[in-house]
């Protein structure tokens, strides 16, 4: 939980004893216990409300699939590009062949005809 190990929690407790003192420590420990209990009840209440609103579909949801720690941008981009290539292949067979003189080639030829030079390349630019 939050990367806290037993040693770290013990160190926090020792520091709290020195900072708060033995006379105020029980009061703050009781407040911490109440806070943790309220947070647990809040989380359980949210889960119960979600179960009530979603009905039987709540148990069918694969919560591990929705875990944000599973987010891998490289995989998502790879899948998006793969899907796009498959769509292009399907649309190429259905529609007419792509125009060999696309807008990019037309602009490039117009710049070459006008004698324009390409922008200089800066290898140190990010």
UniProtKB/TrEMBL annotation:
Q: Where is this region: Disordered?
A: 87-126
Q: How does it sit in the membrane?
A: Single-pass membrane protein
Q: What is its main location?
A: membrane
Subcellular location(s): the record lists: Membrane
Q: Which UniProt keywords apply?
A: Membrane, Protein transport, Translocation, Transmembrane, Transmembrane helix, Transport
| InterPro entries (UniProt xref) | TatA/B/E
What's the domain of life for this entry?
Bacteria
Q: Identify this protein by name.
A: Sec-independent protein translocase TatB
